[in-house]
Amino acid sequence: MGKTTIAKALCNELGYDYILLNLSNDRGIDTLRTTIASFASTVSLSGDKKCVILDEFDSSTQILQAAFKAFMEQYSENCSFIMTCNHPNQIIQPIHSRCSVVDFNIRNTDKPNLAKQMFERAMKILDHEEITYDKKPLIDVVMKYFPDYRRTLNELQRYAAATGKIDAEIVKYASSDNITDFIAAIKTKKFKDAKAWISANLGNMSQDTIYRSIYNNMHEYIAPNSIPSAILILADFQYKGTLVPDIELHMAALAITLMSEVEFV
Predict the structure, then answer these.
(1) Which residue range forms the structural domain that includes residue 168?
(2) Along the 265 residues of the chain, how does pLDDT read in single tens digits?
(3) Domain at 91, CATH number
(4) Are residues 68 and 83 in the same domain?
(5) Residue whose C-alpha is closest to residue 52's, from 91, 78, 85
(6) Rounded distance, CA 219 to CA 217, Å?
(7) Does 204 share its domain with 165?
(8) Inter-CA distances, 62 with 38, 56, 78, 92, 229, Å
(9) DSSP bridge partners of 20
(10) Cα 118 from chain centroid (whole Å)
């Protein structure tokens, strides 16, 4: 949704010196005590105001969050803080009360215009890269992944690199959301194939896309009596997935759990 890009753009627009930290990687209290404290406690050499952008703040530990509430007040005169997240419920209430919350949900009335802008921007990029395209399949791809513009461009780039054009076949090519190969590997308990699929595809689709694809189509390949168990597994892994440092390892664990606890048809 461009949360991090907007945060950086705001800092640039306001003339702030800033640092960006991804707390899905730097999750511990040491990050607060060293990197953030060092930056926030010093005066900018240029005299500009300072800002710390904490990306994926919902991935930080509860210990860091608890310490950060006092930290924000201590350095508020010298430094501003922007925190981005996908799961606000995983951030403690004292942090919420110290922040102005900006919701990035798109209103239904705005969606048609934004989708049109995505389509027009995609055409400009394809024209610039001298990639031939048909408008109908391009519209299909934009609508399939709207409002995920990053995913849309990734799919267009992936298909254009393979075929040199954008045509009707991209709709099938981009339908990896069906994850049939991944399901086939889990169903036949071929962990090596499942692991290979995860390594090849995790960069092109999010965890949530994988969970949702399995959920949407589970009636086609999971025995009815196992569907409740499969839903509970998916919900548990989706919740924990926001906290894990190694996503690929986490998804491999999902494959093993489905193999061992779900009956396929």
Answers:
(1) 108-173
(2) 678 889 999 999 998 989 998 877 665 666 677 788 888 887 776 667 899 999 888 878 788 888 888 888 888 888 899 999 877 888 888 898 888 888 877 788 888 899 999 999 999 999 999 999 999 989 988 988 888 888 788 888 888 888 888 988 777 666 555 578 889 899 999 999 898 888 877 766 778 888 888 888 888 889 999 999 999 999 999 888 877 778 889 999 999 999 999 999 8
(3) 3.40.50.300
(4) yes
(5) 78
(6) 6
(7) no
(8) 21, 14, 25, 8, 29
(9) 53
(10) 18
Which of 124, 151, 173 terminates a domain? The answer is: 173
User: If you count DSSP H runs as helices and E runs as strands, how many of each does the chain have, helices first?
Assistant: 14, 5
Q: In what order do the strands lie in the sheet with 50-55?
A: 17-22, 50-55, 79-83
Q: Half-sphere exposure of residue 132, counting CA atoms within 13 Å on the CB side? A: 5
Q: Is residue 31 part of a domain?
A: yes
Parallel/antiparallel/unpaired status of strands 17-22 and 165-166: unpaired
Grouping H, G, I as helix, E, B as strand and the rest as coil, residue 194 is helix
Q: How many domains does the chain have?
A: 3
The answer as to whether 102 is a domain residue is: no
Task: For residues 245 and 162, state if they share a domain.
Answer: no
**Can you point out the beta strands (E) in the chain?**
17-22, 50-55, 79-83, 132-133, 165-166
**Whole-model pTM?**
0.59
Contact 82, 52 (CB under 8 A): yes
